[in-house]
Amino acid sequence: MLRDRLTESLKDAMRAKDMASVSTIRLMIARLKEWDIEARAKGNKDGVADAEILQMLSGMVKQRQESVAAYQQGHRQDLADKELAEIEVIRKFMPQQLDASGIDAVIAKGIAETGASGIKGMGPLMAWLKANYAGQMDFAAASAAAKKALSG
User: Fold this and answer.
1) Model pTM?
2) I need a surface site. Which of 42, 83, 104, 111 has the fewest CB within 10 A?
3) Which pLDDT tens digit goes with each residue over 46-68?
4) Packed helices 19-41 and 50-73: angle between N→C axes, nearest 10 degrees
5) Mind giving me the DSSP string for 64-127?
6) Distance (Å, rounded) from C-alpha 141 to C-alpha 147?
7) Distance of CA 22 to the CA centre of its chain
8) Distances from the Cα of 87 to the Cαs of 31, 60, 76, 81, in angstroms?
9) Which residues are within 8 A (CB) of 105 and not within 5 positions of it... i.e. 6 or more apart?
């Protein structure tokens, strides 16, 4: 379970005195606790599932990528490097990311399984992708590839 991996990795990073990893993992655990509290409000007493944790981690990576771009525009490479280091730590808890050809293959499979056709099939296809491949792809890139596949 991802939750247990986070806890064990925090302990390992503390033992290794890897303060960059300790800081990032603590941020991840704090964000997870926020998601658990939100889930309790919706009636989920057990906390969020691994698929939702992967979604949370993807969001954290996306936020940091946006920060990197902003820092690089502002000529603050030191801050950009810090964000890139955090992205590396977060990605250790995520499945291997699909490349462009992998995304195309998964989209073809999704189209076959959902029966999506035309742009109107975009919603069901993206829902299927998020349900089956959370944390494994950049959904902005997947969305663009899905539009191309459905319109062409």
Assistant:
1) 0.74
2) 42
3) 888 888 898 899 899 999 999 99
4) 130
5) HHHHHHHHHHTT-HHHHHHHHHHHHHHHTTSPPPP-HHHHHHHHHHHHHHHT--SGGGHHHHHH
6) 10
7) 19
8) 15, 8, 17, 10
9) none
